[in-house]
Amino acid sequence: MDSEEIILLLENLGPDSRGRLHTLAHQKRMDRYGTKVYLRGLIEFSNICKQNCLYCGIRSANKSAARYRLQLEEIMDCCQEGYDLGYRTFVLQSGEDDWYTTDKLAQLIAGIKRSYPDAAVTLSIGERDDETYTRLFEAGAERFLLRHETASRRLYEALHPTMTFENRRDRLRSLKTIGYQVGAGFMVGLPGQTSQDLAEDLLYLKELNPDMIGIGPFLPHQATPLKDEPAGTLEATLDMIALARLFVPDALIPATTAMGTAHPYGRELALQAGANVVMPNLSPLAVRPKYTLYDNKICTGDESAQCRFCLEQRIETAGFRVDMGRGDSLNWLSRP
Ligand code: 5AD
Ligand code: FES
Q1: Closest Cα partner for 214 from 150, 269, 303?
Q2: Residue 308 lies in a domain
Q3: Which residues contact 301 (CB under 8 A, 6 or more apart)?
Q4: Least crowded by CB within 10 Å, which of 8, 99, 141, 257?
């Protein structure tokens, strides 16, 4: 499909065609991954960030955020707990926090790989230079999540005062060249986002051919300039998940926390529209409420201590099976 065909489709989806789109995506997912849903243990290790994205609750200009930074030993403790719970992928996510130097991160990654050689390490730490990306890959990190956020230059520039559109794309290219399994992705329902912008997101994904694709609705955060903007809708986000599955059939696509925040069954609905990964929260309970990218984030209270078991129930009720394996992307496994 070209841009005009995608726009036509997006602007004419009704209840029937939307159902057909989600069914097609579900069939594609069944064909590639079956009913398996991969679990990743998410560790949000620092909410300190030097960037200032307009939508994000941990932007540097938000002086009301309670900041925290986990020590390397505390991150290792989370991995131990996760490993004992059965996780074989750890996603280390943070704001862009230079306190974690290349040396510290390489030491952490090597330590995790030494203790848990059968686990995969995924980084989600934002933009760094090639040298750092290379050293962290050599230390044992095999995957990297860096959403492109939006493929529209106009929107990207309006939302990211401290970053450039070119550099974002350049970082994604580098990660791929270095050899990481790469995750891109975007938000749906950003203020001012049009069908044409969403068409560009899909065409960009097709061109980049990432291993992972993270898609969630934009959700406002009260301490950001976008606090009064409407949230992205569940329906539009499900449509984009389904289309991402059809455009990049072998990708691993998470049913994101933002989907679960937008609707009580948002993650289940995402799984039924082509998603095949969930990322339960493994962060220490004490810091969870502080990692707030948007308002009303789920899984931040005491009742969420073990998201693993909550999600296992939910996934099975939705008709899928939990797979605790590393779950590498088919795309990557078939690379020469
Ligand atoms: N609403 C939805 N998603 C957000 N993210 C950051 N802020 C928000 C928000 N207000 C997403 C970005 C980022 C990912 C970790 O979280 O896409 O890449
Ligand atoms: Fe976190 Fe259900 S997934 S409480």
Answers
A1: 150
A2: yes
A3: 288, 289
A4: 99
Cα dihedral 261/262/268/274 (nearest 10): -120
| pLDDT value of position 306 | 86
- The gap from C-alpha 201 to its chain's centroid, in whole angstroms, comes to 15
Q: Which two tokens stand for residue 315?
A: 């996934």
Mutate which of 40, 288, 299, 313 for ligand 2 pocket (most atoms within 8 A of beta carbon): 299
For residues 169 and 205, the answer to whether their CB atoms sit within 8 Å is no
Environment class of 326 (CB within 10 Å of its CB; exposed 0-12, middle 13-18, buried 19+): middle
Task: Count the domains in the chain.
Answer: 1
Q: Among 111, 120, 126, which Cα is nearest to 324's? A: 120
- The answer to whether residue 50 is domain-embedded is yes
Would the pTM of this model clear 0.95, i.e. be above it? yes
Residue 333 maps to a domain: no
Answer whether residue 336 is part of any domain. no
ipTM higher than the 0.85 cut: yes
Contact 295, 58 (CB under 8 A): no
**Cα–ligand 1 centroid distance for 60 (angstroms):** 14
Q: What is the DSSP letter of 230?
A: P
pLDDT reported for residue 336: 66
Ligand 2 pocket by Cβ (under 6 Å): 280-281, 299, 304, 307, 310-311
Best residue among 293, 295, 296, 297 to mutate for probing ligand 1's pocket (most ligand atoms within 8 Å of CB) is: 293
Q: Which stretches of the chain drop beneath a pLDDT of 70?
A: 336
Kindly give the distance from the C-alpha atom of residue 52 to the centroid of ligand 2, in angstroms, as a whole number.
29
Range of the domain at 99: 3-328
Nearest one of 10, 87, 86 to 42, comparing CA atoms = 87
Q: What is the DSSP string of 100-133?
A: S-HHHHHHHHHHHHHH-TTSEEEEE-----HHHH
d(CA 292, CA 195): 28
